[in-house]
Amino acid sequence: MAASQGTSKQKEVQRIMDVLARAIAQHRLPPGTRLIEAQIVDTLKANRNHVQSALQRLALQKIVTIEPNRGAHVSQPSAREARDIFAARRAIERGVVEAITPVKIEQHRKRIDAHMAAEREATRASDRRAIVRELSEFHRMLGEVSGNEVLVDILENLMVRSSLIVALYQRNDVPSCQHDEHGEILDALSKGDNDLAVARMRYHLDHLESELALDDEAAPEVNLKEALASIG
Ligand SMILES: [Zn+2]
User: Fold this and answer.
1) How far apart are CA 42 and CA 24, in angstroms?
2) In the CATH scheme, what is the code of domain 79-216?
3) Cα gap 135→184, rounded to integer Å
4) What is the CATH number of domain 8-74?
5) 76 C-alpha to center of ligand 1: Å?
């Protein structure tokens, strides 16, 4: 009895985490948004303890920040953290791409084709929310095609945190070339040319990072004393 209660609690906490992480990844809850427990309880028809556990677990994953007396809000990664996350993605996604064989591509062919069609459609319709969702879904999909569950778990966290970074630091609107770059990575993988796929993934991630305003001037550290002194 106790064990099954434990499992159902875990499932419920996971459900709440999934809904919140998805809303954050899709920019429905932008960085800095206050996450008010009572509202989450109401909206998700959830139990308060479960919501608290979900927020605490998201805080351990750095997706949510909990501050004493201020409660929880969606994290606002610093420029430095953003660079670190991209460095981590280069390492993890290299592992993902190295693990994908043409056989695995064929096994997932239907899903891959449906996904690429959805990306094309979102780009054609200039549907910003759909573009953000589909472009990051590509990376999750490759993780699953690789069949390495550990890489999938790490990547899931990095992708949600990447979407926070894009929301905070993206210079322009979503670039339309990304979809083509995804296609080129897939082409190399379908032919079994993993070295080329690794190089293309690396180029793609460098390109994504270059679209972000991560130079220090972009997010200056405010010196309170100096700021106040200059007023007088
Ligand atoms: Zn991409």
Assistant:
1) 18
2) 1.20.120.530
3) 14
4) 1.10.10.10
5) 21
* CATH 1.10.10.10 residue spans of the chain: 8-74
Helices 149-169 and 128-146: crossing angle in degrees, nearest 10, is 160
Cα(151) to ligand 1 centroid in Å equals 16
For the chain, give every residue range classified as CATH 1.20.120.530.
79-216
Contact criterion met (CB below 8 Å) for 93 and 189: no
Amino acid (1-letter code) at residue 21: A
Residues 192-219: tens digit of each pLDDT: 999 999 999 999 999 989 888 887 544 4
Q: How far is the CA of 60 from the centre of ligand 1 (A)?
A: 26
The tens digit of pLDDT for each residue in 93-127 reads: 999 999 999 999 999 999 999 999 999 998 888 88
